[in-house]
Amino acid sequence: MITLKKITPADFDTFKSWITNKEELFQFAGPVFTYPITNQQLENYLQLKDIKPFKIILNASNKTIGHCEFNFKYKVPRLSRILVGDKKMRGKGLGLHIVNKMVEILFEDPTITKVDLNVFDWNKAAIKCYQNAGFQINTIDTDDLKVGNEVWKRLNMVLERK
Known about the structure:
By secondary structure, the protein is α+β, with helices and mostly antiparallel strands. It has helices spanning 12-17, 22-29, 39-46, 94-106, 124-132; strands at residues 2-6, 51-58, 63-71, 78-84, 114-120, 136-147, 150-160. β6 and β7 (150-160) form a beta hairpin.
């Protein structure tokens, strides 16, 4: 259904077209980028040592529909910056396929026994998707982030190898 391929500079314009305001950018990337995203920011992003970003290709059309990354900065590998960027493709269950594919790739390494991710508590569709993939909310690791005039609660979710 989907394939993950490394991002290249040829993908930058597509990537940038998916983010139309500061709030969307923060929801997707936290403090990693500033709005508007520039090619230089993306070049720097591709150079990060512990981050492995990918574009998401829909096999049926060979079209790039999203973005995801593996984050190895922490003790537990993290699924990060998962975005179905093509708004016409949202709500079709692709998020679950993306998450399952990412977990499958990580669990090919027998030394990885657990993965996690972060999500804002108001993003009910994403939380449900992650729960459908087997993730559980880690109530110990939550925090609040100030976004503009609002406070967003960040939840951590964990999946352990069965």
